[in-house]
Design a protein that fits this description.
Elements: H1 3-22, E1 31-34, H2 39-42, E2 59-62, H3 70-81, E3 86-87, E4 90-91, E5 104-107, H4 108-116, H5 133-140, E6 143-147, H6 151-158, H7 164-191, H8 195-216, H9 227-231, H10 241-249, H11 254-277, H12 288-296, H13 302-305
Parallel strand pairs: 2-5
Antiparallel strand pairs: 1-2, 1-6, 3-4
Helix pairs in contact: 4-5, 7-8, 7-11, 7-12, 8-10, 8-11, 10-11
Length: 315
């Protein structure tokens, strides 16, 4: 049983009747669903995920106190807490009285502020450079079961992906990092016998390549432990999962290093093909640095285009 389906079934069996019977006057003001932290919100949960934070539950997102009072919110919390403690063989966790719950009654503004830095979810172009993509993904993942007012649903649509100039800036920086770490520094570190440094260079190359793949697919890059899992579902270049896994998991002996150097070029060539298909580069060479600057030149906003090419590589 996947966590998202467990949540939906629990809501339909107990949540929806509770709202209609006890809170019909305010139900149309709520957004109900499963959104936020946790592998189940991304659909990445499996049997191993059930050893922590896995339970039947859902989120009730409330508007501000000027719309739904703190007294009404407290009544909702009490009603939610009284829902069955076990469902389909899964037990619910006790609610934390001091906050930090993934399920239950949440002020939408608090949920947004925790992830986006403000309570209304409105982001200026430069704001995107200070937000980890996984934080925005936690606002747009999962599923909304009911949202009569449509406020949260509309916001999720607006935040479905970052502005194009932001994407291009991140893409340019990570392409440059691929070139520096993989095409240049890896082989030099191996030649010097600095095998630890070589592996660090390879880790930087793979990390940057993963980010490039998500950017080319216009998907937010998730938390690091889910990146390879998410890569397998990308429409473009999901076939690079095995080469990137090998680059990270193999050693740096002479034979392996030779094979890894060739594999770096294979990964770069595959990415360059998609860059050209998306009309983001006219650079003819195979060096990622040249393609990085070509992508940067595609940025329309001069204030973003003129930022250092590596400005966005950490996000």
């Amino acid at each position: 049983m996947k966590g998202l389906e467990l949540s939906r079934q629990f809501y339909l069996a107990y949540g929806a009747p509770m709202l209609e019977e006890q809170f019909s006057a305010i139900t149309s003001l709520l957004a109900v669903g499963l959104v936020g932290s946790g592998s189940e919100c991304f659909g990445y949960d499996d049997e191993l995920s059930q050893d922590h934070d896995f339970e039947p539950g859902f989120c009730l997102f409330l508007p501000g106190e000027d719309v739904i009072s703190s007294r009404e919110a407290f009544a909702l919390e009490r009603a939610y807490a009284k829902l069955p403690k076990e469902f389909m063989g899964y037990k619910r966790s006790p609610l934390n009285p001091v906050g930090g719950n993934r399920h239950g009654v949440l002020r939408l503004s608090d949920f947004l502020r925790e992830r986006l830095g403000n309570g209304d979810g409105c982001l200026a172009p430069m704001d995107w450079f200070y937000l980890p993509e996984q934080a925005v993904a936690e606002v747009t993942n999962g599923c909304i079961f009911r949202d009569d007012a449509g406020i949260f649903t509309t916001l999720r649509e607006v935040l479905a992906y970052m502005p194009e100039d932001v994407r291009l800036k991140k893409l340019a920086g990570n392409l440059l990092l691929m070139g520096q770490a993989g095409q240049y520094n890896y082989s030099r570190c191996v030649a010097r016998g600095e095998l630890g440094a070589a592996q660090l260079a390879m880790a930087e190359f793979v990390k940057a390549a993963l980010h490039v793949l998500f950017l080319l697919n216009r998907r937010y890059m998730p938390y690091y432990k889910w990146r390879f899992r998410a890569l397998r579902e990308l429409p473009l270049l999901s076939t690079l999962e095995q080469p990137l896994t090998y680059l990270l998991a193999s050693g740096n002996g002479e034979a392996e290093a030779t094979q890894k150097t060739a594999m770096i070029e294979h990964v770069c060539a595959e990415i360059i093909t998609v860059l050209r298909e998306q009309h983001l580069t006219a650079y003819a060479g195979g060096e990622m640095e040249g393609h990085a600057y070509a992508v940067n030149d595609c940025i329309q906003d001069a204030s973003i285009r003129n930022l250092h090419v590596l400005y966005a590589v950490d996000n």
